[in-house]
Amino acid sequence: MKYLIVSDIHGVLSTLEQVLDFYQKNRCDMLCILGDVLNYGPRHEVPEGINAKGVAQRLNGMADQIVAVRGNCDSEVDQMMLDFPVLSDYLQLVDNGKRLFLTHGHIYNEQHFPKGHHDFFFYGHTHLWKLEQTEQTVVCNTGSITLPKGGNEPTFAFYEDGSVTVYRLDGTPLKHLSQSF
Questions:
Q1: What confidence score (pLDDT) does residue 55 get?
Q2: Are strands 2-6 and 155-160 parallel, antiparallel or unpaired?
Q3: Given phi > 0 = left and psi -120 to 50 = alpha, else beta, which region is 151?
Q4: What is the bridge-based pairing of β-strands 163-168 and 173-178?
Q5: Measured distance CA(11)–CA(22) in Å, rounded
Q6: Closest C-alpha among 70, 83, 157, 76 to residue 122
C-alpha cells in the first residue's frame, strides 16, 4: 500500500489541497494524519488561509481513506466536525510485515519512545522534518505543511514497501530512506 503521512495542517485548506493533489496523482491508498488537523492553537499566529470548516469538509469527503491521531491542538469539538476518528494518541499499522507507529509527538517522541518493536516511527508536533535510521527503527518527523519552523519548508512524508520519502509541499523529494535491517 501507499501511505501519505501528514501532520500539523492547522486548518489551512490551501496547503491541504496541495498535499491531496500529490495523494491523487500518486494513487495513494491511505492518508495518515498525525494530528493538529483543524485548530492552530494559542501559541501560533493565525495562519494565512485558515479555513477549518473547509478542511473538515474536504477530509470528510474521503473519510474512508483516512486514519488519524490526536494532536495537542485537537479536541472533542474538532472530532464533532470530522467523520473519521481523530482522538487516539497513537495508532499502529502493519504493512507487509513492517510495523509502523504513528503519533503526533507530544506524548510519544524520540525522548519517550513507545514500548515494543516498531520498524518505523512517524510523528509531527515540532514542525521540523527529520528522516533518519537508528539501529532499531526509521524515525520520520513529517514536519508541517502549514507552519514549518526553523527555516524549513512545508513538508509531508510518503511510505511504500519499507521506504520513506520526505517531500516539499510542491512534490519535490528532500530525503529518501529504505529500511536496511
A1: 96
A2: antiparallel
A3: left
A4: antiparallel
A5: 18
A6: 157
What grid cell was written down for 4?
501519505
Give the model confidence (pLDDT) of 22-64 as tens digits.
999 999 999 999 999 998 766 666 667 789 999 999 999 999 9
Calculated CA dihedral for residues 178, 3, 175, 162, nearest 10 degrees: 0
- The strand ranges marked E within the chain are 2-6, 30-33, 66-68, 90-95, 98-103, 120-123, 130-133, 138-141, 155-160, 163-168, 173-178
pTM for the whole thing?
0.95
Stated length of the chain:
181
What span, in angstroms and rounded, lies between the C-alpha atoms of 172 and 45?
27
